[in-house]
């Protein structure tokens, strides 16, 4: 059984409809009118004279007159007609533009007009190439030769037919008179320039992907059909509506921001590889390049999402967070992404690991999320699925966005990157150089290899943990190494009451709009925590950095270390931290009257003291402070971090 | 032999397909006319006759279970040739229907596209019909009448092709071509090559052709100049001697 063409091609109904084609045909027909149309002149060649040649300036003038537009617009309209192939240039046939001078053009015969009803077959192209081969006695242009070889390989079964048909068509063409033969050759060549563009050009008939279903096919009126309609209408009622002024404003803002960064709308430096075949642009913008380009760095300032989505930007941000000792936020966020996008089989394992590393009490890289979210998350982790960590991830994302991102942009890390960013010069290639570039193009690395390199790098990062910070039980798990790369400063607090921020629950995505009110909510939280540590709270106000300190401070104080301990641990350790600590408000005498801490949550300390019996991956630092160890031993020692759903005995029974 | 018959018939079908394509290309342009429509109709009819004949022959050959493997491979190759021809024919017929509908002959407000082709296509049609001269006998409303016929013929052809696919079990991708790449260059067309090669397509190519030609003619002219100079020199020397002598 032969399988001819399984995809039933109903022409325009499957492909994105190009309405401009039908309209252009009408214009073409108008141009043919002997009275009101274009005036043509004969083209004089060496031996023959061929009629019906039109000049570019005539076309533009006629279009401007007919449609009452200015010359510029008439010119671009004319270029469109040439690009589609309705009119073809007689000189410089590879450049499908209209020149506003006396260069000659001719109309294309209707058979060769672009149409979406019937696809342009490779068989026809092969026949054309074979004919051209005969005519040129074997000397084809380079890209034609490439196509020829490729078609010979892939259409081998039809090759006899192609050769036979090419010869016959060649002979049939010779039956006509000389001028007609010339015209026919021109026409065919012009047709194939449009549909198989030579290198360095694009075809105007590129319409993107085909649709898979026929949108005009009749659908049977089954109950299922109506059910789908009902669901659709219900959902569209529930969809939040945005005012058009707002949405249009957003569009305008987006266009204005990204206009210079779009390689189609403006020049991309040094040159657009798709046009000049020179890949400098891609090598300069690789994901893990040392020195990014200025444009790239500028994009990082547009939004936090841009910064995170760019690998290099994320690296920079990670470096900054490392200096600020809050790298666990980014690590947690990355871990959640890994969970969301990873394999289904590994979800359970990853979720457990994340809990043990980030969420549990006493976790080595504990992140700071509010109690309600923590409750929801822990409950969800009993039956983990892909999106179980979404609320927590959103919270952390917004935290980073509102807080760290702003500071990052003012930080010396970022300023340094900006200063070092390069701005390459624009390439100016001449014609022969472009041909050279075309010859030298090579395919890029296979995505399989790229993925392997990525994984190797992750494993390296995981293995690159500071050895002194590892306890002998630590064994980095490779596939989970994405976030154990930089081991940052654990803040293991024991406090059960994690009422830090009353988080407006369940923001479904980090990008949701409603979080403009975070600062307000923070303020609300302040009031709610009135029974907590009044003095410890730095007024949030609009002061992002101070709220950051406030958070850490709160954590500190919930950990319940004495100010003496805290300051003592501060000074020898991190000078940067010490520097920032000067911004902390003086801590009042009313220290937390909460339960004595299980463990010390000493934010500014690099290390954490966890007894060796612990099953998690404890991270020790170089020097151990006496006070902390003493204080620690005061707490409940030998407590393992076990996921609460694993055993009921070690559930959150806190004092 | 069945195979040779098949081959000749396929060649004929091939020729008719090629000519039909040429004729359809001329549709709608300034070389269009009533004659062209008639030519199209006649060529089409011939193509259909040939197609039916080919199909019956090939199906009977392929249905025969008692043929050898090489024979079968050969017949499959011929079958692929036949079905590719039919595909081209079908596409061309659809196009001719579409263009024929868009460009009716008799309507005075409808002008043909000034493509630069002004000659007639009689010779092409004559080649297709394998006759010396074409006779035109159709009436003036051929375009509208013909189009209706054309529509039914297109459906016939599509049906035939679907039938062919269902009934004949040939895997087209398994067929190996006998011709290798560049086979079209090795042909007995030496008569045609040189004459076409001289024609220049557009203003660009004349430069190429002239460049090539001038290289040869340059050598010739250099030789001629050299000979001329030699003759002049010898004439001068002789004249000088004569003058001196006298």
UniProtKB/TrEMBL annotation, chain A:
GO terms for biological process: G protein-coupled receptor signaling pathway; intracellular signal transduction; negative regulation of signal transduction; regulation of G protein-coupled receptor signaling pathway; visual perception. It is found in: Membrane. Residues 34-109 form the DEP domain. The keyword Membrane applies. It comes from the Eukaryota. Coiled coil: none annotated. This is Regulator of G-protein signaling 9. It comes from Champsocephalus gunnari (Mackerel icefish).
UniProtKB/TrEMBL annotation, chain B:
The chain crosses the membrane at residues 219-243. The lineage of its organism: Eukaryota, Metazoa, Chordata, Craniata, Vertebrata. This is Regulator of G protein signaling 9 binding protein. Belongs to the RGS7BP/RGS9BP family. Keywords: Membrane, Signal transduction inhibitor, Transmembrane, Transmembrane helix. PANTHER family: R-SEVEN BINDING PROTEIN (R7BP) HOMOLOG. One of its GO terms (biological process) is negative regulation of signal transduction. It comes from the Eukaryota.
